[in-house]
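hiii so um. not sure if this is the right channel but i have a protein structure encoded as tokens and i wanna go backwards to a sequence. like what aa goes where. can anyone help
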């Protein structure tokens, strides 16, 4: 006597196994659009510190001085400010360091996914006063600095 229920379950299990093998090799549009989190690929260790009285700090422009930052567009700039938010969208497509609660009122610093691995966990900068250096560009009418190497970020010693 044939057990039809057991046979049906075996066929169904075989079909599911076949389907899972087929789709395991096919690219997923969802996983392709979501990048690895910066914290997952971050460099081990900490950011370099700089003393408050150093020349880099003395010559730095406040990250909240949009007029001065805009005047440096297309040039190298040195800025200082306290990171009030590390913004990372669910897609992990960028990391944005905001220097003001209302991000429109200050310069932003951005890290693209191809540079994630050269920095320690950028979330460690939340609440820290930092000095950033780099080329000033314009994005949606506001100045920003694109960060791509570790030496572009220094944490003020003893400040947080």
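sure thing!! here u go:
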């Amino acid at each position: 006597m044939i057990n039809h229920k057991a046979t049906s379950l075996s066929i169904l299990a075989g079909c599911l196994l076949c389907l899972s093998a087929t789709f395991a090799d096919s690219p997923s549009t969802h996983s392709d659009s979501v990048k690895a989190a910066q914290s997952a690929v971050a460099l081990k260790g900490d950011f370099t510190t700089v003393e408050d009285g150093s020349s880099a700090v003395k010559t730095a422009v406040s990250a909240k001085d949009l007029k001065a930052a805009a005047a440096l567009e297309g040039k190298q700039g040195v800025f200082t400010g306290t990171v009030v938010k590390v913004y990372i969208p669910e897609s992990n497509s960028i990391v944005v360091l905001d220097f003001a609660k209302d991000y429109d009122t200050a310069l932003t610093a951005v890290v693209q996914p191809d540079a994630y691995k050269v920095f320690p966990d950028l979330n460690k900068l939340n609440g820290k006063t930092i000095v950033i250096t780099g080329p000033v560009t314009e994005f949606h009418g506001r100045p920003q600095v694109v960060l791509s190497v570790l030496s572009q970020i220094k944490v003020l010693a003893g400040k947080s």
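oh and Residues 4-33 form one domain.
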